[in-house]
Amino acid sequence: MEKVLTTSDLTGERIEKYLSEGKRFDGRKLNEFREIFIETGISNKAEGSVRVKIGNTEVLVGVKMNVSEPYPDSPDKGNLMVTAELLPLSSPRFELGPPKFDAIEIGRVIDRGIRESKVIELEKLCIKEGEKVWTVFIDIYSINDDGNLLDAAGIGAIAALKNARMPKYDEVNDKVLYGELSDKKIPLSKNIPFPITIYKIGKSLLVDPTREEEDIGKTRVTIGSSEEVISSMQKGYSEPVTIEEMHEILELAEKTWKELFLKIGKYLK
Amino acid sequence: MAEENKREIVIPGEIIVKGEDYLPGDGTEKRGDEVVALRYGLSEESNKLVKIIPLSGVYHPRRGNVVIGKVDNINFNGWMIDINSAENAFLSIMEVPRYVNKDALEEVMKIGDMAIAKIWNINKRGIDLSIKLRGLGKIDEGIIVKVNPNKVPRVIGKEGSMIKLIKDKTGCNITVGQNGLIWIKGDKIDDELFAKKAIQFVADRSFISGLTDALTKWFDEEKK
Amino acid sequence: MAKEFKRADGRKTTELRPVKAKVGIVPNADGSAMFSSGDTIAIAAVYGPKKMHPQHQQNPEKGTLRCTYSMISFSVSDRIKPGPSRRSMEISKITEWALEPALMLEEYPNMVVDVHINIIQADAGTRCAGINAAAMALAHAGIPMKSMVSSVSVGKLDKQLVVDINKDEEDWEEGEGATDIPISMTDDGKITHFQLDGKITTKQVKEAIELAREACKEIYEIQKKALKESLGE
Fold it and tell me: For chain B, what are the domain ranges?
């Protein structure tokens, strides 16, 4: 039933033509993001939580921490786990059940972006080597899907991390005292990694598509970076890109990251 | 107008009016001498008949409705068309104005194409569509806009006055499907987007009176 | 009369926590709402009526209401692993039973109305907040309904009945401990959902129902106001 509500080929042709003239239906430029709104402290039970709205797209991201054994191959490092859920509440296209590919991809791409950027100083999350380390959970939930959930999720993840505070830990009784946040933030380095996903429609490259635009995107490349240092990349969908296009994509991503950072940087420090 | 003053947003279960001589219309029921709302919407009373104008809700297909849909699937007999209703809608090759070879259905319309059709029958099996009349058939180019089906009467306006205003001011051809899908075709994409904006303006204010004046004013401002 | 019972947050025994309600918070949905009671926040979205899948679950006589209730991982202190739990499945069913009597789904045979409830922040009374949000979302979606449904949790702390218990009160340990009674009612006072955990006499259960009736009337006014103020969304 929802198939008629996906972008028709008809409208798709118009969108593509308009893009080739450098214009978009909502009046934005191709390298322009919709208005971004970031609110912190969404759940007082989380160690850190944010709401990110990009246009009508909305996600909630929360950080929770617990103490457990380290992984055998990193006995002196804390753990990171990133999960994303595309809630059925947020779109007629999402169903209840185990995560489908889209949710899994978002979780994994954001995970790699955070992990490879080393923004979390995992060595500082070791309590007792080989026995006890902190695990940082980043949980992402979609609340309304109007395109570009990936970037919204990535911005939310770093904002939630920067906003979070460590809970108190009672070493004697091995208990995390939830609800009693310390003054300490999670040990983070100064970089601020978040993804920018570039979409290709026809021959045009654009950022931050609405649902209507994302429906007709034939290929996309997500670049997770902080300032000019790239820590992760992922190309999605089936259409190939030329080397030249990849250069353009990289340049567009770098430029857009800087512009976006000017707008939202204050939430991410 | 006196009747329009009696419009009020009501919620399910709410008593709209009390009185023996009031009659319960669409979306209401009489309990004793009270007319009670059974839906969220605008209550309207005229000549003692009380009804609800819905502000939300899905499309209820009716015979005779002109609708816009997307070809979902093709079988040897015709095209399955998705018109955003719970029931499946089907366009048989018998309901096409010219002869169609059973092997050539795709040449008339393929999966993903948009079409304007008329509902000529609804039965247990589903909805039967026809494109035999003028103005119906495959849509070649333009943009498709969606509004909630309950706002369609407002977008069309009394005797088509609202949609005529939009067509005149934007220079576009516009077909409004009763199922909430609207086809806009203009000389330039800018004109089509202008018409889309106007339609959105009306849909967002579907509950107010004096909307035609408000829209005229809006057009004057936009044209500056 | 015995001296006024003191609640930790200063409320009177019959006083609700501060309530916030808003409609239209999920643009994609056919109807949606947020309902918060103190620190408990619930959001609900409705999709439908639409064709019911799988086909064997279709009811040819009337539409089916299908509710899902789920708490997000960071809504509570101890992170909840994503995925359904027995508790969330039970509450999903309870929610269906609470809302169904008010709905008129005869005109939607073989169709389903999906209601998704998510708890964003939990401080007791989550199922009640969920039902309150869901009822608003159903109305917002234009589903035909005979009445609204409102829900509240009445508690007994030792021997004292109180309305709308929070988490601290849920964990009350003095005397007879805490008894928790979540109740849902239609706006004309019919009970559509009733649960009880604890230790209580019949007389006090009847009193609790009275208290719930009054509290539900208050909640109904708030739900009504939110729906009336939702224009343009």
Answer: 2-54, 66-138, 143-223
Go through the domains of chain C in sequence order and give each one's CATH number.
19-228 (3.30.230.70)
Cis peptide upstream of residue C49 (ω within 30 degrees of 0): yes
CATH topology identical between B2-54 and B143-223: no
Encode pLDDT of C64-99 as tens digits: 999 999 999 999 999 999 889 999 999 999 999 999
CB spacing of C73 vs A144 below 8 angstroms: no
Q: Which of C72, C92, C93 to mutate to test the interface with A (most CBs of A within 10 A)?
A: C72
Please report which helix (H) or strand (E) contains residue A207, including its range: strand A204-207
Ramachandran area for residue B131 (φ above 0: left; ψ -120 to 50: alpha; else beta): alpha
Characterize the bridge pairing of strands A165-170 and A175-185: antiparallel
Query: How far, in Å, CA of C137 to CA of C29, rounded?
Result: 9
Q: Which residues on chain B are in Cβ contact (under 8 Å) with A13?
A: 141
Give B39's contacts in chain C (Cβ within 8 Å): 139, 142-145
Show the tokens assigned to B224.
Answer: 């500056």
d(CA C141, CA B170): 32
CA distance B74 to B45: 46
Predicted confidence band of residue B104 (pLDDT cuts 50, 70, 90): confident
Instruction: Please name the chains neighbouring A, where neighbouring means 3+ C-beta pairs under 8 angstroms.
Output: B, C
Contacts of A92 in chain C (CB under 8 A): 28-29, 47
Per DSSP, the three-state class of C3 is: coil
B14 in C contact zone (CB under 8 Å): yes
Judged by CB atoms closer than 8 Å, whether chains meet at A14 and B141 is answered as yes
Q: What is the per-residue pLDDT across A3-52, written as a single tens digit (0 to 9) for each?
A: 667 888 999 999 999 999 999 999 999 999 999 999 999 999 999 999 99
Give pLDDT, residue B6: 59
The verdict on B41 touching C (C-beta cutoff 8 Å) is yes
Q: What is the CATH number of domain B2-54?
A: 2.40.50.100
Contact C105, C113 (CB under 8 A): yes
Of C33, C12, C9, the closest CA to residue C136 belongs to C33
Q: What is the CATH code for B66-138?
A: 2.40.50.140
Q: To 5 degrees, how large is the angle CA C14–CA C120–CA A190?
A: 130
Tell me how many residue pairs between chain B and chain C have CB atoms under 8 A apart: 69
In order of their start, the domains of chain A are 2-268 (3.30.230.70)
The 8-class DSSP code of residue C81 comes to: P
- What is the C-alpha to C-alpha distance for residues A178 and A45, in angstroms, rounded to an integer? 8
Tokens of B130: 């026809």
CATH number belonging to the domain at B143-223, selected among 3.30.1370.10, 3.40.1550.20, 3.90.226.10, 3.40.50.300? 3.30.1370.10
Amino acid symbol at C138: L
Chain A residue with Cα closest to B144: A11
Kindly provide the ipTM of the predicted complex, given to two decimals: 0.93
Return d(Cα C133, Cα C219) in angstroms, integer. Answer: 11
Helical residues (DSSP H) of A82-180, grouped into ranges:
101-117, 149-163
